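Work Package 3 (structural annotation) set out to generate three-dimensional models for the target panel prioritized at the project kickoff. During this period the team completed the workflow that converts sequence records into discrete structure tokens, so that structures can be stored uniformly alongside our sequence database. As a representative example, we reproduce one entry of 210 residues exactly as it appears in the project archive.
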Amino acid sequence: MGRRFVAQRRADPYYRAAQADGLRSRAAFKLAYFADRFPIFHPGDRVLDLGAAPGGWSLVAAERVGPHGSVVAVDPRTIEPMDRVTVVHGTVGAPGLRDRLGPEPFDVVLSDMSPRISGAYSTDHARSVDLVLSAWTLAQEVLAPGGRFVAKLFDGDLLATTEARIRPSFEHFRRTKPPASREQSSELYLLGWGFRPRSGASHPPGEEDR
């Protein structure tokens, strides 16, 4: 890790605030921003957090769903224990992961997954889209009717087609960039709420959108 990067991070107000508040990562402020403005979480929700390490989003989700809610955090990396968060070590798209998540549907699926940065923008964009589509494939299997979906991707020429694949499955859909995203970052977030399973799709029974 270069000295310049370390210096920039220490000067970042979101990084410093995350350290002071015990939020594990500055990314926690992004999810909190969405949750304050869009109906992502409800008390008692069951949340699936994909690419969860180090746990910043899981921590915010657990706080927002309250003592009657729960979070399942998925990542191949180690995540320190948190209240009402179950850690599943695995990779999205890996065989058997779906079975390890249990039979109950989720009210919310989150994905803050990011590819290893190659430095070639078109490659990084395409890889980020692949991660979003992997998350979306899983979400279609586990989301309860009325559920919510939040996923990060990098801006680029595949953005429109990616949105076109996901948007029709939700009553409401937004593309946004939170203030906590670095100004120079190309990351964007897709938010959908009011999930409508495809006709004929097999989903466990779940709560309708409240």
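Residues 1-24, 200-210 have pLDDT under 50 and may be disordered.
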